[in-house]
Amino acid sequence: MDVDCRIRPNQGSEMSKISFKTWKQVVEFHSPLKNGELDRQTIEIRQDPLTGHQSMLNEAFQGKIAFAFPETDYEYLRRRMDETREQCFMCDGKWRATSPRYPERLLPGGRLEKGEAVLFPNLFPLSAYHAVVKVGEKHGRTLDEFSPALLFDALSVSLEFIRRCFQADPDTPYFTINANFLPPAGSSIMHPHLQVIGSPMPSTHLRLLLENSLAYQRDKDSCYWTDLIETEKQSGQRWLGEIGKSSWFTAFSPTGVNEVNALWPGKSNFSEWDDHDLHSMAEGISRILLSYHQLKFSSFNFSCFSGPMGKSCPEFCCLLRLINRQNMHLHYRADDFYLQKLLKDEIIIYPPEYLASLMRKEFC
Ligand SMILES: [Zn+2]
Fold it and tell me: What is the pTM of this model?
């Protein structure tokens, strides 16, 4: 798909509470793609207003997205699904005999079930509480097959698990709900699933978000996240819409490919969530995944961040980051390299304003 780079970001009007910083660099070199003539390329660098995270947009790269993200090979994807199904411990009820169980004192019965969703411990946990959630009975899905009802059940057992863990262990207040879908996103199994992690300490990125949110609150006497919603809604360029009390928009300076953010203002942590919040998250994720599918992307990660459980933090609100990963095709290459892993920057594939224009129809 060709990309319309004429949709440029505003810098924030004088009335905006948050300004979006960009600057440009110009590169000149003789290009064999232009018969050795001097080529002049302009690179736009964006900086996240809260974290300073940088991302780069090179207009010369636009229209050449297939070079970095070849379209999903759906025949290959189906073949991998067929080849892995028989060995899958989540399929055909095999999880009942093969998945681990939590002690009765934490979860009576050892697992949590709702509809087709089942939560059980990760065999090799990375934190004090680290659960896996089976999402549905079907082994292989494309991104147009994640219904809100399917996601709601998976998110519902995730939240129930978080509540029970915090009730049993109030010294572990930091939780995230996460997803790796398909091997390019880091998943070791094809079967859709979530991962819930709880720890006494926040993750590196959550700590950064919480510290910078507090600094903003002290400096401006205002909540960064409600200011961000107000600014994005007013600008409209990256705005997707509202679902219930949640706000959805594309990230100005994305931390991953095609990043979409959702915010739950007034809800700083998961202990303040109810079924309405879960419904809005399930509905929004379902709509974004459908949009990704229409762009022929097939793989994703998401993380939903919460402030410390049981402690209202007016400077923060729950935040979802949802991104694409490399598409499924034979010999796919990782989409993150030194730029993301070590320099901690990101390439912009679709300009966020253009991405929003493609996705907005799912929110009308
Ligand atoms: Zn399976």
Answer: 0.95
